[in-house]
Input
Amino acid sequence: MEMIDIRDQLPRNGTYMKRPLSAVTQIAVHWDAEWRPHEYDSIARYKRQAQYHINKDWGGGAHGDGLMYAYKIDNVGDTFWCRNLDEVLWNVGGRPNYYTLPVCFDCGSRQLATREQAEGFEKLIEELCYHHPEFPATQGDVHGHRE
Output
């Protein structure tokens, strides 16, 4: 399992809003609702999802500026760094996105995270919550998308 920086490989459509890292007080955990086969090309999946987020009308004619997750975790537990941490990404309802850092598992309906994904997630959360003093989110601030 490793951290792979692919921020410069994904489709983008500008950056709409930034925030200071000190504003990050929540980490939101997602699954992408796309079936996860046993083997697949993770980066191709993320490029396709980024383009979908750019093309999607999020309401009132607003379109995304790229993949709406800061990190993605694939089936073998590799963690892909997809967006800068200071970018506000549309990922939660009922809580302001301004304060939230989104992390997403590759996982379809009725699929559970793999053991490797769970281990990769644990390492990522440890890194984010204990080695990034520039933002105040802690393990107690990790929540599911709709929590």
In short: The chain is about 20% helix and 15% strand. The first strand starts at residue 3 and ends at 5. Residues 50 and 67 are 4 Å apart (CA to CA).
